[in-house]
Design goal:
Blueprint (H helix, E strand, L loop, with lengths): L9 H11 L3 H8 L1 H11 L6 E5 L5 H9 L4 E6 L2 H11 L7 E5 L12 E7 L10 H11 E12 L8 H9 L13 H7 L1 E11 L2 E10 L8
Parallel strand pairs: 1-2, 1-4, 2-3, 4-5
Antiparallel strand pairs: 5-7, 6-7
Helix pairs in contact: 3-4, 6-8
């Protein structure tokens, strides 16, 4: 599978999401809501857990995490302050105060080892350069507790002919997708040490996604 080249430009990424924040929830509802539902299902949230969502965006999935974990600790992080503003507004409608939302990025998490029971990450890795995949996944692995669970969704190649429309868009008109493109991270996940417990291909209105449920199984000295 060809993975289209992307460069890491944090300021440009912020600008891209500033431009789309006002309608992102509509896009998400049309193309990502099935994947989001599967992510919540696979996370199997238990009240009282420590849960982090990295790249929480406008807070659609994060709100569901908070609702299911009212007595736990919930942290949402996103690079874009414009997307976070939407998340703050959405979460303000919830009675629970068991959450924090912060601006930040995966390369400067400032989070201790083995801090979280669950980690959620949606449609972020498909923005990143391929040579950063191992670094990103190593950070996920590092901050999870032993036996912790990560649930990750990405833009995928899909399995149906109609899915190839979005691959074509990603290749020829990347700005229309804020530079997201289909990625394959299975070999990276295995290299880092994650056990892939489940994986699903999802197509919604022809847009293809892949969702992974992963477990941190290695309980010896951290490699990363």
């Amino acid at each position: 599978m060809e993975i289209f080249t992307r460069n890491l430009n944090i300021e440009q990424t912020k600008k891209n999401y500033k431009q789309v924040a006002w309608f992102y929830n509509i896009w998400s509802w049309l193309t990502e809501s099935k994947a989001a539902k599967k992510v919540i299902e696979l996370a199997d949230i238990r009240n009282g857990e420590h849960i982090i969502e990295i790249a929480c965006g406008t807070g659609i999935v994060f709100k569901e995490i908070v609702k299911r974990n009212p007595d736990g600790q919930n942290l949402g992080i996103d690079l874009s302050t414009d997307m976070l503003a939407k998340a703050f507004k959405l979460l303000a409608k919830e009675d629970s105060k068991s959450y924090e939302l912060h601006q930040g990025d995966i390369f400067n998490l400032q989070i201790g080892n083995k801090s979280y029971d669950k980690l959620v990450n949606n449609f972020m890795i498909d923005l990143m350069p391929e040579d950063t995949f191992d670094t990103i996944l190593s950070e996920f692995y590092r901050i999870l507790k032993p036996n912790g669970v990560a649930v990750i969704s990405t833009f995928s190649n899909g399995q149906r002919k109609v899915n190839k429309f979005w691959v074509w868009i990603a290749k020829h008109f990347p700005k229309l997708l804020t530079n997201c493109r289909p990625v394959e991270i299975k070999s990276n996940l295995k290299k880092i040490g994650f056990k892939i417990e489940k994986e699903f291909e999802i197509s919604q209105n022809t847009f293809p996604s892949k969702v992974y449920k992963l477990r941190k199984t290695r309980n010896n000295k951290e490699m990363w």
